[in-house]
Amino acid sequence: MAMPTPYAKPVTIASPDVGLREPSVSRSALGLARxxxxxxxxxxxxxxxxxxxxxxxxxRAFAEALSGERRLxxxxxxxxxxxxxxxxxxxxxxxxxxxxRAGIRLPVRPHAVFVHGYxxxxxxxxxxxWLLPRVGAMPVHHSKxxxxxxxxxxxxxxxxxxxxxxxxxxxxxxxxxxxxxLEPGAVRIGLQxxxxxxxxxxxxxxxxxxxxVRYRYGPRARRSLLRLLARLESFVGVGAxxxxxxxxxxxxxxxxxILAEGERQYGLASADxxxxxxxxxxxxxxxxxxxxEAALDAGERLLGIERGPGDSIERLYRIRQIGWDRVFLPPExxxxxxxxxxxxxxxxxxGEAWYAMRHMELADFAWYLRSGPPAADGGLTTGPIxxxxxxxxxxxxxxAGGAISGRREVRPKRAVVxxxxxxxxxxxxxxxxxxxxSAQAAIMDELKRSYTACIKEFxxxxxx
Length: 464
Description:
This protein is an alpha/beta fold and about 475 residues long. About 55% of the residues lie in helices and about 10% in strands.
């Protein structure tokens, strides 16, 4: 079965880098987004309902941010992948509806500018490259000095006309029931902005508002889930299960087959299959961890670079950065302006980088998958079961050379977006000036507690 992903065909040609215009908000682009986002979310992404909780708080925060009374950073969770599209609707239209319901006056129509990885326009296609800068979205690099990108973000926080939206998780985290990793960048730049504003004598306080996202699935999603499961079984080569068989048993068989194939690919010792069947979480975590480590080693080896410093995510960021920089070349290395020999060398390096990034894409996903299937005590289409089935497809897809674009969604789905009480960064300046590291860590803990509280609330509701 062919993998439906743009990465199915290897890149073998180096290209000039994607040129983006300087981010600025176009009223016509925002008008287009407002007019089509609802239809896009329903038809393309399968959302049948969106519930916005904390709408009064969010509308009030927007009203004050749009009038310049406060500087607002919207720190959203990113467990599924399509949160930016969902939240774009929430900030463009949902806030408007909530403000109208609560009698809150907005000085201008609401919008938020998003921060995205620099690589998104490279793989996102012409429409994405056209749209992102016209709605003010700002690219940033994860693993190299990016003074231009950081200056844009600081300017947006301190002087921009709209709130700033970013994910402290840094990228998709693939788990809604946990917060496996948070990056300190949002808190750090927020505190720096609050400090500069205070020293300049400006009264506007800087606030960080946690935004949580949860998808839910009803009985109508059952058929979609079973189709995904049957396709997964066919792809990984296990016998097709029956619709009456416990879905967790079918998922465990698929997990074992995928893990065994990953171990075979990297020459790892095969673990006891019975351990997975019995739900031995430590065994799954150890096996997946070994695959992640081997994949990162392979990516670094193909690129001809030393083992990167830092943790696994920092290493994969580095592989991604170097890989994309060899596929899309800067102006000084424009492949159209070099000798035939040099062009051939650049093309070969691009092909090698593409294959190195296949290993990175596997590690990128698998780092977050460290357990067996959840119990099915809440029914077949509970969020954890659907999430795990989608994640197993992703695991197989990445092992086969795919990327997040090959993810398969179960639908229809409902979204719950929760805006929690904002964290006032300006109120923490005394602590920040006394001990920056400690103040930043305390706010990171508070942010994580906010996310975790929402997770617990969601789970309790779903368990009835």
